[in-house]
Amino acid sequence: MWKTVLRRLLIMIPQLIVLSIIVFILAKMMPGDPFTGLINPNTDPKEIARLRQAAGLNDPIWVQYFRWVGNLFHGDLGTSYVQHVSVTSLIADRAVNTFWLSLLTVVITYALAIPMGITAGRREGHWQGTLIQIFNYITFAIPGFVVYILGIWLFGYTLGWFPISGSVSGSASGFFPVIWSRFYHMLLPAILAAVISTTGTVQYLRIGILDNRVEDYVRTARSKGVPEKVVFNKHILRNSLLPIAAFFGNTITGLLSGSVIIETVFNYPGMGQLFMDSISQRDYTTLTALILLYGILTLIGNLLSDIIMSIVDPRIRIQ
Amino acid sequence: MEKQSDLLLDIQHLHTAYRLQGKFYDAADDVNLTLKRDEILAIVGESGCGKSTIASSIIGLYDHQNTKVTGDILYNELNLVGLNESLFNKIRGDKIGMIFQDPLASLNPLMRVGDQVAETLYYHTDMDEKARKARVIELFNQVGMPNPEEMYMMYPHELSGGLRQRVVIAMAIACKPEIIIADEPTTALDVTIQAQILDLLQDIQKQSHSGIVLITHDLGVVAETADEVAVMYAGQIVEKSDVKTIFEHPLHPYTRSLLNSMPQNEGDSDEELLVIHGTVPSLKNMPRTGDRFAARIPWIPASAHEENPQVHEVEPGHWVRCTCWKSFHFEDQPAPQEVNSVSGE
């Protein structure tokens, strides 16, 4: 088990190196440099050249790359030339918000998708199964931002059940009121994001149940006189949950890319919103750091998937 | 003479029909069989002849929505046909054990093999966890698995095909069932392992005095292990007798063709094997009147067949369907002169 984890961690090293090179090249390919837009037309070109020299932008590209990577190891992601603060602290504040929103979204997603998938699998061909299938097609087909805007309009604006923007109410004070306010602000985006991200999990689970319930080992279990309820929970369901575990990394990645839209729509101060802002403000250092971070998080998501798989499926451990 | 209690299974007029596009078609058509204690009853026939259908009908494992089972399957006066599921679950695994064809597919890939065997005990005995584990290890010993304690903790993919089948057998015999149904237990195994598994089944039977229903298409397996043989063709039993009679004095054209299509001398590569031309008609296209085998022996005149072939007891304990056997000869052989000659070869 630990061997598998260690091996997977080792495989991540070349992946990270490649990722950092790609991100660095992309950053270099973006038009302009950190001083573009900061400099007014009256600035002496010699002064610009001096600044460029001081920032090391005239060094050979690999020197710049290794300096950048070296700084990364010290937790230094550079300075935002727009906000004039260190990117590390800028992201750190936002990352916490995104982490909690994503966690809540994952929890709600599985809380919805697993019962739905089980019902869809068990009641295939009945109205319950059909209903879930229809629901799945609709939520899969509608783009996230449409759902979010409709949700804000209906539940936030018209019904007034939820706050429609921000991460915490300004009037909240004290430890628990603030926690509650943060939770309350996350609830609507998390529920809406969860509803539209159930599709994959529901379908994998449904197909898994349909496939597994005709497997020979299920017949074997029945031939032992195991009651049908136990046959389902212990034999069919457990085997059908395997693809969900494999799909977990994908779910994480989906949440991260989804956060860009949801945080922008809900004006929620997380990494996704920061990402959008840094694009529109041409905040290259922040953008580069975020792309790198998203890449790393994706790799970690896949690693988590593999670890979970190796825990639940004994056949994985052997390899 | 047999005592009444020796009769384990009495199958009378069993019809098992599957629903295909809204209509039911008999895959097992009027099957009559008995299984006695200490007996191995082999059901032989080619793919699609209905042998596995009989197995699943006995143990009640079929798609209840798309399968219709009628007739009687009596186990100790209890009719298993239409028995409610919770009662049936008390019998399955406890009184009737089942061994399947593909041992890898038959085992849950996520469960330790020991736990899978222990699961049977959990539902049919009041042993505690420790006792169950001890019993499983005892069973693993009985089915000839090396290092039973170690084997208990293994997952199916870690075992060889032969060991997996031993696990499946251990599972089937865990509660010392009176009836064991073995559905092609050696088909997925290689030849050396096949012999070991068959020996094991015979040993188990001798020890436990159970009755075994052995379903196979392999006549070699039948000759080696069976006491009684039922030959099936297209959902019907065409010949039924003790194993010696089946091999020495086969009567039904299908049985005779089947035996002639079996290699006799292993070393003789020039030996020409009989090929039974044609195929078994599909369930939907099965003729429901007349002799179902007639189409595959076209050189036998239609008048030789019964219009609605019945099973006749030609000698005590030897049953043959239709009367066409009396005038049957292989295509390249002359027609028998005497209608009564039983052993025409």
From TrEMBL, chain A:
<feature type="transmembrane region" description="Helical">
    <location>
        <begin position="134"/>
        <end position="163"/>
    </location>
</feature>
<dbReference type="InterPro" id="IPR000515">
    <property type="entry name" value="MetI-like"/>
</dbReference>
<feature type="domain" description="ABC transmembrane type-1">
    <location>
        <begin position="95"/>
        <end position="305"/>
    </location>
</feature>
<feature type="transmembrane region" description="Helical">
    <location>
        <begin position="286"/>
        <end position="312"/>
    </location>
</feature>
<dbReference type="GO" id="GO:0005886">
    <property type="term" value="C:plasma membrane"/>
</dbReference>
<comment type="similarity">
    <text>Belongs to the binding-protein-dependent transport system permease family.</text>
</comment>
<protein>
    <submittedName>
        <fullName>ABC transporter permease</fullName>
    </submittedName>
</protein>
<feature type="transmembrane region" description="Helical">
    <location>
        <begin position="241"/>
        <end position="266"/>
    </location>
</feature>
<keyword id="KW-1003">Cell membrane</keyword>
<dbReference type="Pfam" id="PF00528">
    <property type="entry name" value="BPD_transp_1"/>
</dbReference>
<keyword id="KW-1133">Transmembrane helix</keyword>
<dbReference type="Pfam" id="PF19300">
    <property type="entry name" value="BPD_transp_1_N"/>
</dbReference>
<keyword id="KW-0812">Transmembrane</keyword>
<dbReference type="GO" id="GO:0055085">
    <property type="term" value="P:transmembrane transport"/>
</dbReference>
<dbReference type="InterPro" id="IPR035906">
    <property type="entry name" value="MetI-like_sf"/>
</dbReference>
<feature type="transmembrane region" description="Helical">
    <location>
        <begin position="99"/>
        <end position="122"/>
    </location>
</feature>
<dbReference type="InterPro" id="IPR045621">
    <property type="entry name" value="BPD_transp_1_N"/>
</dbReference>
<feature type="transmembrane region" description="Helical">
    <location>
        <begin position="9"/>
        <end position="27"/>
    </location>
</feature>
<keyword id="KW-0472">Membrane</keyword>
<feature type="transmembrane region" description="Helical">
    <location>
        <begin position="183"/>
        <end position="205"/>
    </location>
</feature>
<keyword id="KW-0813">Transport</keyword>
From TrEMBL, chain B:
<keyword id="KW-0813">Transport</keyword>
<dbReference type="GO" id="GO:0016887">
    <property type="term" value="F:ATP hydrolysis activity"/>
</dbReference>
<dbReference type="InterPro" id="IPR027417">
    <property type="entry name" value="P-loop_NTPase"/>
</dbReference>
<feature type="domain" description="ABC transporter">
    <location>
        <begin position="9"/>
        <end position="259"/>
    </location>
</feature>
<dbReference type="InterPro" id="IPR013563">
    <property type="entry name" value="Oligopep_ABC_C"/>
</dbReference>
<keyword id="KW-0472">Membrane</keyword>
<dbReference type="InterPro" id="IPR003593">
    <property type="entry name" value="AAA+_ATPase"/>
</dbReference>
<dbReference type="InterPro" id="IPR050388">
    <property type="entry name" value="ABC_Ni/Peptide_Import"/>
</dbReference>
<comment type="similarity">
    <text>Belongs to the ABC transporter superfamily.</text>
</comment>
<dbReference type="InterPro" id="IPR003439">
    <property type="entry name" value="ABC_transporter-like_ATP-bd"/>
</dbReference>
<dbReference type="Pfam" id="PF00005">
    <property type="entry name" value="ABC_tran"/>
</dbReference>
<dbReference type="GO" id="GO:0005524">
    <property type="term" value="F:ATP binding"/>
</dbReference>
<dbReference type="GO" id="GO:0005886">
    <property type="term" value="C:plasma membrane"/>
</dbReference>
<keyword id="KW-0067">ATP-binding</keyword>
<protein>
    <submittedName>
        <fullName>ABC transporter ATP-binding protein</fullName>
    </submittedName>
</protein>
<dbReference type="GO" id="GO:0015833">
    <property type="term" value="P:peptide transport"/>
</dbReference>
<keyword id="KW-0547">Nucleotide-binding</keyword>
<dbReference type="Pfam" id="PF08352">
    <property type="entry name" value="oligo_HPY"/>
</dbReference>
<keyword id="KW-1003">Cell membrane</keyword>
